[in-house]
Amino acid sequence: MAGATVASSVAVLTALLGTSAPAPEIRLVDDTVPMTQGDGSLSDGQVLTPFDVQNPAVGRLDPRLLAAIQNAANAAAADGVTMTINSGWRSAAFQQSLLDQAVQNYGSLAAARQYVQTPTASRHVTGEAVDIGGPQADHWLIANGARFGLCQIYANELWHFELVADPAGNCPPLQPNAAG
User: How many domains in the chain?
Assistant: First the structure.
């Protein structure tokens, strides 16, 4: 459905601009994004929207999660809330570097795992988790996300969402932190 929206938008722009050039191929999720473009990390101050699919942090999200986040962002915008993405897909190497940094910051692997998963356990590495910004968007998504299938997972991370609501729109109980 989202692909049709993109194709329709391209057709409208083509008609408005009066060009007969063929529409470019547009994919909502691009598995061919070269790793040289990034490992999912964002530079300080970089702001992404759920529609910045050219960036690997967004473009490599699971297609179902991406569609849910995009639909939620549109609904939030209708309520006057801007939704940004602070983190999405991450390479295993980047996830490991985050864990290593957390171990240094918190003094032990056990303490670090309350905030950062291992690469094999992180749903960011599989493209099945997204961190939303800022606080207004976090609270909007906590209140409204289940209707899009999106649920807050960890009590200590208001920004972390996964596509885990059941068909009735119920989210699982919050885990205290990433360690469980």
Answer: 1
Structure confidence by residue, pLDDT tens digits, 100-123:
999 999 999 999 999 999 999 999
Residue range of the domain that includes 84: 31-163
Q: Which CATH number does the domain housing residue 157 bear?
A: 3.30.1380.10
Assigned domain for 16 exists: no
* Rounded alpha-carbon distances, angstroms, from residue 155 to 65, 107, 160: 20, 22, 9
Structure tokens at 106: 């918190």
Backbone angles phi, psi at 42, to 5 degrees: -120, 140
Please tell me what DSSP assigns to residue 32.
Answer: T
Separation between Cα atoms, residue 67 and residue 65, nearest integer Å: 5
Predicted TM-score (pTM) of the model is: 0.79
Residue type at position 110: A
Residue 155 included in any domain: yes
Domain membership of residue 25 (yes or no) is: no
Strands (E), 33-79: none
